[in-house]
Amino acid sequence: MRKKLVVGNWKMxxxxxxNAVLLAGLREAGPWSADVAVCVPFPYITETxxxxxxxxxxxxxxxxxxxxQGAYTGEVSSLMLHDLGCRxxxxxxxxxxxxxxxxDQLVADKAKAALAHGVTPIVCVGETLAEREAGQxxxxxxxxxxxxxxxxxxxxxxxxxxYEPVWAIGTGLTATPEQAQAVHAVLRTQLHAATQKSDAxxxxxxxxxxxxxxxxxxxxxxxxxGLIGGASLKAADFAAICRAAG
Length: 246
Ligand code: PGA
Hints:
By secondary structure, the protein is an alpha/beta fold. The protein has 10 helices and 8 strands.
């Protein structure tokens, strides 16, 4: 039985004052039987760590460099994230693939760098609306995952995977539980061919997950949790999803 994992992706939101309120709300709302984490903007990692001390909540980043250290102005390495106590780093989010032109290989290299320093990469895959309408969903997500499998080889079992249909992110459109499950099953089959650990691996769904659709999505056999954007910015909304995962 896989333990559910609910991860908040704050994206480029927050302020010291707003974060303090949100994190205090989460402290009060827990504990939950699911694993829970928040992935926050880099500058807020240290304060998040302090605010969550003594709770079950883990924390992480929304990206990491493929490099360990050196002359990479503006980058943050997984070595640094590990130093700050981060458990997770989201890599390959569709917003980074789209706006920062991150390739499948770069995403795979970031996942490898994270694992090398004890940070679990949450690797995002997902198709655009045009790709779905062209019947390309499977081809796209399998191509994105194949790059990670090829690069990580026997370590692939250590990642968390997230299926995030691009057309559902921040749009209020959610994949139906059946649509999401179908893709999750494809991804698990692909993982199964690569690692004996596939049954233990967690595949999260992301894309307009909220308290009122979380139960149905999380009830699917291959949906092992959620990656939550908009609904992770209010403690009550995020806590309701965490409860639904329990
Ligand atoms: P959303 O974002 O929940 O706001 O759709 C999810 C994500 O981008 O991770």
